Task: inverse folding
């Protein structure tokens, strides 16, 4: 009898799963995958644990995985090993007859949770009353479906860490000012690279519903939502200084979700794909300190034994919310499919989907 049969509340994983050995769980996951064949598709984000990555049919960034899932029209079930906003995007892009499953509904994103629709509507009203209709909204794909939908309704677009500068450049051609959310660091770093001065940017606090400080609004071009990635914000200039002193030959590469000071002090900065590509192409015996999520850094270390790779912050922990998707929860979700009682089904309503898709499609068109 499957452990799933013991569940009273199908959304809560029973403790019995954690009593299983690693070998038992791995064998069972492979069995279920084989039994479903092409009716099951399992995408996994780069930041997932190796115990989950081993089963992935595709590994990548959030939007990339959602797009791959959308092309897989044979799958009845898409078990998305990532976080909630990623599964939402996959649901919006896939067919109505396909079900997107998140193995643990607690797997959220602290950055995405820093902007909700009520806050954004209040902010928009406040900013327009102060600045008039001079603002175009952009949102990082690391945001909820309802935030994407708001941006879509107001003529804006989504951005990724790879294309943020290109989309921001487009937005500044459309309007005098841009509201960039929810990650202030990606917005600041992208705008600065385009030649926007720091005093032409200001932070908007959703908590206080106002611009922080006393910015000269006549010069204001970029309004940065007060949000951040709880992982990337932990990399510091002090980390870089320590590497420079202890290992001068080490090159430092970071994600643009890091603070402006860290990105400026690093040798290279770019998206997850950029970081992976740079290390793939790096010379043997080269030395690298990487400022991104720890699971990915550890995977890069194991994939490149000919290079000396370390985390920029040796005390860094993996992304805690991403790591809620572990082997027991994955098995639990898959057994729920076997028992025809799926748990963790992600469903975005049609009006939200329609507007959010507008923001995504604008980005892809640009």
Result:
């Amino acid at each position: 009898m499957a452990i799933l049969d013991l569940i009273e509340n199908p959304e809560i994983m029973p403790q019995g799963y954690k009593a299983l050995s690693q070998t038992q769980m791995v064998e069972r996951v492979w069995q279920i995958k084989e039994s479903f064949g092409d009716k099951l598709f399992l995408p996994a984000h780069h930041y997932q644990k190796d115990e989950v990555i081993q089963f992935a049919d595709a590994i990548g960034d959030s939007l990339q995985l959602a797009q791959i899932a959308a092309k897989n029209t044979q799958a009845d079930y898409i078990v998305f090993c990532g976080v909630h906003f990623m599964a939402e995007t996959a649901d919006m892009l896939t067919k109505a007859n396909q079900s997107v499953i998140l193995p643990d509904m607690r797997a959220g994103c602290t950055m995405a949770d820093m902007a909700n629709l009520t806050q954004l509507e209040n902010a928009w009203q406040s900013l327009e009353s102060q600045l008039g209709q001079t603002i175009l909204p952009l949102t990082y794909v690391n945001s909820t479906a309802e935030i994407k939908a708001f941006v879509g309704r107001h003529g804006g677009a989504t951005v990724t860490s790879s294309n943020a500068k290109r989309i921001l450049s487009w937005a500044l051609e459309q309007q005098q000012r841009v509201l960039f959310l929810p990650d202030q660091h990606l917005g600041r770093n992208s705008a600065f690279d385009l030649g926007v001065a720091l005093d032409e940017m200001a932070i908007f606090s959703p908590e206080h519903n106002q611009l922080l400080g006393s910015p000269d609004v006549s010069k204001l071009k970029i309004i940065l939502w007060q949000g951040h990635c709880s992982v990337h914000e932990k990399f510091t200039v002090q980390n870089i200084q320590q590497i420079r002193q202890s290992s001068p030959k080490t090159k430092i590469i970071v994600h643009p979700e890091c603070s402006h000071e860290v990105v400026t002090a690093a040798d290279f900065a770019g998206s997850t794909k950029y970081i992976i590509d740079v290390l793939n192409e790096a010379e043997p015996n080269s030395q690298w300190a990487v400022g991104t999520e720890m699971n990915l850094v550890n995977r890069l270390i194991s994939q490149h034994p000919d290079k000396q790779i370390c985390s920029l912050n040796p005390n860094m922990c993996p992304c805690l919310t991403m790591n809620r998707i572990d082997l027991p929860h994955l098995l639990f979700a898959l057994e729920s499919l076997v028992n025809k009682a799926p748990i963790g089904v992600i469903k975005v309503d049609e009006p939200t989907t329609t507007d959010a898709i507008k923001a995504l499609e604008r980005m892809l068109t640009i």
In short: The chain has three domains: 3-108+321-348, 112-229, 232-311. The first strand starts at residue 40 and ends at 41. The radius of gyration is 21 Å. The domain at 3-108+321-348 is CATH 3.40.50.10800 (Rossmann fold).
